[in-house]
């Protein structure tokens, strides 16, 4: 997606608002309208991430039906977003009674439901509240839209993804190709910080980020960053790595008790959702980093790496590529924490 989501949305808006469309424009408009029907559900849609994410998904011409669910506040958000003149029909759902309706027929479910951090907290400190929220939402997904792709945003992602997997296994609906921990914000940050330091155009910057989504488990691979830069010292790479790992905390501290990243996360969530929809629609060569079931690092059953997206979700989990010595060290250092977070999620879901 990146800039292209907004270009397509603008183009769609121009087409819709032009009263004297030529036959050429009508043909193009028909092409847009003839994209497959895709229902996207956002769970936690009235929250700090949920609202701007709902807006961005409303701008995405690949979405035909946008379902906004939360425990409170969704009628207002849905009414507001529904006035935007883009393709999708918007519906708001509120409370347990309406969760089934919100999910029925969904191709993609995005979950930013749950509490955010305050200064001084780790993502793992959110486990006690968010694990239960994720578990109950995933139980409903297994019942009402067992074939949907699931994009997990709720923290701690290193544990909530294994929780979701165990819930789906218990329900007999688990398909490892369809469950994704959203780590796109780490990539978004790494690209921004790299472009600033390396003085390359940010729109062209690309940096894979692997591992997990918390502190040292976030491992940006600046040795593979493009466009290549020869003017970064080892100290620069260490500083860029640390800033990427601490990006979430930087925002939590700046917000001083009012939550964590919401706007940049909504952007990142929309980028990743767009990639999933493109994959579902058969667009070739769609690759994004994501925290998925994986065998690329022994002993870590879930791991973030580049993933090729296709008509059934994950088409291929791509390898890590060559790592610098510094990155090899980073990989060793993250294993213990990531393994413990994964096991904590599995234990919660299997024993509660
Ligand atoms: N993966 C990432 O990179 C990333 C980035 C930023 C934030 N997050 C996480 O996303 C989550 C949400 O953050 P936020 O800033 O939007 O928080 P928020 O408090 O602003 O919004 C959360 C929303 O979830 C809703 N909610 C709570 N329980 C629910 C349930 N059972 N069903 C449906 N909705 C429910 C709340 O009503 C609220 O509207 C947090 O856990 C945060 O840590 C993840
Ligand atoms: O840092 C947080 O708690 C939110 C999120 O995981 C982030 O990376 O911004």
UniProtKB/TrEMBL annotation:
GO terms for biological process: malate metabolic process; tricarboxylic acid cycle. Belongs to the LDH/MDH superfamily. MDH type 1 family. It is found in: Mitochondrion matrix. Residues 183-348 form the Lactate/malate dehydrogenase C-terminal domain. InterPro entries: L-lactate/malate_DH (IPR001557), Lactate/malate_DH_C (IPR022383), Lactate/malate_DH_N (IPR001236), Lactate_DH/Glyco_Ohase_4_C (IPR015955), Malate_DH_AS (IPR001252), Malate_DH_type1 (IPR010097), NAD(P)-bd_dom_sf (IPR036291). It holds the Pfam family Ldh_1_C. This is Malate dehydrogenase. Homodimer. NCBIfam families: MDH_euk_gproteo. The lineage of its organism: Eukaryota, Viridiplantae, Streptophyta, Embryophyta, Tracheophyta. Its main location: mitochondrion.
